[in-house]
Amino acid sequence: MVETEIVSGRLVTATDATPPPGWSTDYADMGGDEEWSEDGVVVSMLQSVAISTEVFKPLFAMEAYTGSSLALFEAGSTGSTQYYFYSPIEGSLWRITKLNDLNSITKAIGDKGAKSLDVEEVL
Predict the structure, then answer these.
(1) Number of H helices and number of E strands within the chain?
(2) Which of 59, 84, 107, 109 has the fewest C-beta atoms under 10 angstroms from its C-beta?
(3) Residues 96-105: what's their mean pLDDT?
(4) What pLDDT does residue 54 have?
(5) 13, 27 in Cβ contact below 8 A?
(6) Measuring CA to CA, which residue among 86, 111, 89, 108 is closest to residue 99?
(7) What band does 64 get if pLDDT is binned at 50, 70 and 90?
(8) Enclosing H/E stretch for 42
(9) Cα dihedral 116→113→108→55 (10° resolution)
(10) Residue 104 CB-density burial (10 A; 0-12 exposed, 13-18 middle, 19+ buried)
(11) Mean per-residue pLDDT over the chain, rounded
């Protein structure tokens, strides 16, 4: 089950991290349940490549005005999670390989953009 909360009248993903500029925690803008529920697109993609969804947490997505469609999420088993990018337009997943904590990833995205991160294509 995706953790969400209501903030200023909007349903957002529950995270303590602040999204980088141009990114949002707005759950509906991220694709909502169609993308992120237990029966959603992303869980199905992860299961197809044997990535555990015991821990599964959508975090941020690029805002529409940026012209890009990319979301950041965490997945894995308890005590062993990793961070991933998901592109709903391309239907692709990438594992972030060098940074392993949300604050470092968020800072890197804010400073240099998502393309500055080292990633490995998963699907």
Answers:
(1) 3, 8
(2) 107
(3) 94
(4) 92
(5) yes
(6) 108
(7) confident
(8) helix 41-48
(9) -90
(10) middle
(11) 91
